Amino acid sequence: MTAVLQNDRFLRALLRQPVDQTPMWLMRQAGRYLPEYCATRKQAGSFLQLCQNPALATEVTLQPLERYALDAAILFSDILTVPDAMGLGLYFAEGEGPRFERPLRDEAAIRQLHAPDPEQELRYVMDAVREIRKALQGRVPLIGFSGSPFTLACYMVEGRGSSDGFPVTKTMLHDRPDLFHHILQVTTTAVTAYLNAQIAAGAQAVQLFDTWGGTLTKAAYQEFSLHYMQQIVSGLTREAEGRKVPVIVFTKGGGQWLEMIADTGCDAVGLDWTTDLGDARRRVGDRVALQGNLDPSTLFAQPAAIEREVMRLLDSYGQGSGHVFNLGHGISQFTRPEHVTALVQAVQQHSRAYHRA
Ligand code: 1CP
């Protein structure tokens, strides 16, 4: 028997149903800014071993909930486990971020690409979802996630992160759009099956992380990123355990394209901090909920400044449901945990006034 959900503010806000206060969670809420995360990661050996160990992944997923009154848990994993399961060989060079042993560079390898079976090659992720749901005992909902096909393809072709705009990937996009589309199509099949398997295993909402879609032109964004995210949204299981399973689409740098993103059929659009929350609400109307969008660097400032920024954001969104408070991108590893306490308290304290009917 699955435990009854005790706090459904997050799921309700994503569906624009009334709530008593604005729900919140933080992108990368489990991570290196928490000393207890660093201790568990050390115990696991490496970041990848941590992801592949369902008991330890469960432990770190719950760590931020022990400290802070957050309204959702997010599966502890990484977007790059999917290309790893497609045979690219993920590894982390110490202090240098993710790398692939076999990046996609030649046509033969690209034509052989196949979508993994989530309950086989990604079994450890599904086991983690099941174990986290048990450990949560209905305290808050669990978010599952995946990278968008375009964002995954950036790492798959480049073989690593990039500080200068993924030049190898962009070259393939322009010179061999047929090959690049093939990668995106196989990855779309993989991501759809992966998210549906997470939902079957117990994920109660899912988010697509399109971290690099915002580096494209409008036309290229539509053709190479949005088109595939829309296919995924259409292919997802939208109800489980008698409740809707909301879908959040987050394109970093996607502020110019909110209406198009809302048209994918998602329930909520994630915003980075460069878009004004109030303007975004006026643009999308009652089509979707909005998630975001505190600049993560605000958390380096003193609690009084954090509180001011929270008040400004809540006021910018205004009265009523449909807002999930979050950062505009992942929390920095250099954030002081006490500053997150100040953030969570400020959202709790000041958001109630916006939900009195
Ligand atoms: O402990 C460590 O050293 C690893 C740091 C780390 C962590 C904590 C990585 C490596 N991934 C994660 C976890 C992670 N990644 C989560 C967990 C759930 C959470 O608490 O939110 C999620 C949702 C991700 C998603 C992810 N991984 C994205 C999309 C979101 C974003 O931040 O833009 C991307 C682009 C990645 C790739 C990745 N994995 C790790 C790093 C350092 C990176 C970025 C690489 C780069 O381009 O520089």
Describe the structure.
Catalyzes the decarboxylation of four acetate groups of uroporphyrinogen-III to yield coproporphyrinogen-III. Strand 8, helix 12 and strand 9 form a beta-alpha-beta unit. With 357 residues, the protein is of the alpha/beta class. The two termini are 35 Å apart. The protein has 15 helices and eleven strands. The mean pLDDT is 97. The protein is globular. The longest helix is centred in the middle third of the chain and has 25 residues. The protein has one domain: TIM Barrel. Bound molecules: coproporphyrinogen I (1CP). The site of coproporphyrinogen I has 20 residues, from strand 3.
Beta-strand residue percentage? 5-15%
Continuous helix count: 15
Instruction: Please trace the helix and strand order, writing H or E for each element.
Output: HHHHEHEEHHEHHHEHEEEHEHEHEH
CATH topology, anyone?
A: TIM Barrel
The strand count comes to 11
Number of individual domains: 1
Radius of gyration: 19 Å
CATH architecture: Alpha-Beta Barrel
Short structural description:
The chain is α/β, with parallel strands linked by helices and 357 residues long.
Task: Give the helix/strand layout.
Layout lengths: L8 H6 L20 H10 L2 H5 L2 H14 L5 E2 L6 H8 L1 E4 L3 E4 L6 H6 L10 H14 L5 E6 L1 H10 L8 H9 L1 H25 L3 E6 L7 H18 L3 E2 L2 E2 L2 E5 L6 H5 L5 E3 L6 H8 L4 E6 L8 H15 L5 E5 L9 H15 L6
Parallel strand pairs: 1-4, 4-5, 5-8, 8-9, 9-10, 10-11
Antiparallel strand pairs: 2-3, 6-7
Bound molecules: coproporphyrinogen I.
The site of coproporphyrinogen I (1CP) has 20 residues, from strand 3.
